[in-house]
Queue: 2 jobs
Job 1
Amino acid sequence: MKNQRLAASMVFLICGLPATPSLADIAIAIAGPMKGQFAEFGAQMQAGAEQAVSDINAAGGVNGEPLVLEVADDACDAETAVAVANQMIGRGVRFVAGHFCFSASIAASEVYADAGIIEISPATTLPKYTDERPGGGIFRLAPRDDQQAKLAGRLLAEEFGGARVALLHDKTAYGKGLVDAVKAEMNERGKTESMSFGFDAGAEDYRSLVSQLALENIGAVYLGGYHPEAGLIKLEMKRQGLNAALISGDALMTEEYALVAGETADGTLLTYPENPRDMPSAQALVKTLEEMGKPAERYALTTYAAVQAWAQAAEATGGTAYRDVAAALSDGTFETVLGAVSFDQNGDSNVPAYVWYEWRDGEPRKR
């Protein structure tokens, strides 16, 4: 069985409210990167989930029963995510808001589908997550990578049609998948890249990589990857005097990118869904979280909305039975901090479309 791939040597963190809920409680969970380089995203998820549980319980719970929350660290790792998912089965969890990284989300989704646990990822954008979902209870509250790739491919073909373009990726499924989709869209529009290659994530020195770009007189770099490497590459571009545009995806929508790249972050372009913080429906929650000193960024809001959607579906069915709640999520519309949310036959949501942002004066601003 897929859900039996639990390695005894796996190390992961499970914390939260009581390990064994009372019979009147409904156990739900969040799972994501609570430690390490992506911990800021896990902190956002935790803040949103905790506030959602608090607000729902204050309003009477779900079908009159209170929610209890488990918080699990999957280290953005597939094997650890499987271990976490198996642990959630043992804890009687009915719903998981998670995971964050695509590899963890996809691996865990097989366990959840086998066990009859609803999963709504507030962050996973890889199309495969829902295109190949193992069951009808797997959903996402994040836009698909192929949507942002279309936007980026069009920009490179139209605004950088006369420039030499380099396509770089960090060899992860996220980074390479995004670059492959951008390439396909750009090529379809008649623009061909001048060079394309993968680089090793986690390096501290990208002088050789940037030297290759400079030798090829690259005018625009599309990078599929995350903020630590993107920031270091942007710094090295500045050091070597390479005046090329750096363009990337939603993973650069974090202040950590500016902490790495410093002033050189300015001018970086990225695709990202319209910021949930700007939505009228989210203003009260943003204020509450900020007053408590908690993160009120995107994944806090999408995680809050994921809990809301599941809770409303459970209310509509009068229980937490997997098939009933999955059907309700597939067929219904739910009022959330992101506005009215619905899911299509794939489990994809109608979240805001990708738009362009540009880093200016140390922060990303809508272009």
Job 2
Amino acid sequence: MSVYTQGVVALMGINILMALSVYAIIMTDQVSLGNAGFMAIGAYTSAYLTVKMGMPIFPALIIGALTSSFIGFLIGIPLLRLEGLYFVMGTFGFGEVARTFFMNFEPTGGAYGFRGPVGATLPMIYGWVLALILFFWLLSHSRLGRSLDALRDDHEVARTIGLNVTVLKLGLFWLGSFVAGIAGGLYAHYMFYIESGNFHILVSAMAILYVILGGMYTFWGSVLGAVIFSILPEALRFMEDWRLSLYGAVLVLMMIFRPSGIISRQIVRNIEDWIGGIFRKASV
């Protein structure tokens, strides 16, 4: 595998993690434009721990993600009082604050960026991807997952049946910021160099796009959306100046003909039933 191909595959894995971080928040019927900020916190924290303090990469990644999720918990308390566009704008503001903070924070290089974090490999990135896919699969088949489905469908009905909507929203916001922190740490340690410009609003917007186009009602849609729309720009490079135009046209066509995304919840259930039937026949 060439260095270029490895880079594309690595970034695809990180995009999958970012899509899952957005999906975790969308499960509560909220859309966050601040996940790039959480990604930045995880990236800079883990990079600082490995470069300046000599910490091994794995505990540095965990601490970076926990720092990101702790800040997510703190800002989630006031932000989750907001609804709709106000929540989106609040998370957008947080993302810009986080990016600007690291642009001016001298211990992590400020505007010059931060050099030196190493250690992330493709097996490590995809180990996290597989672990989190398994986690979301287990969550989707649990009682908590069914409660989250009810919350996403209708907040008031969820309250009526006894669900603590505030706790569920805060918990999923915490989870989303944790996953984004992991993505940021892996990105920093794969790229060897980070700067605040790596974590601008477009990173958050693209992660939302992966979820919406892939299918926002199942985590498999987030994974598939990140895979397809990470590969598509690279596959269209032969078109040179027309590449981004065709990429945009594909996105528009997707929104017209598949507004609910590539994968629906029913498609996933049908596939799972089909696979389950195969295993049941094999065990007879």
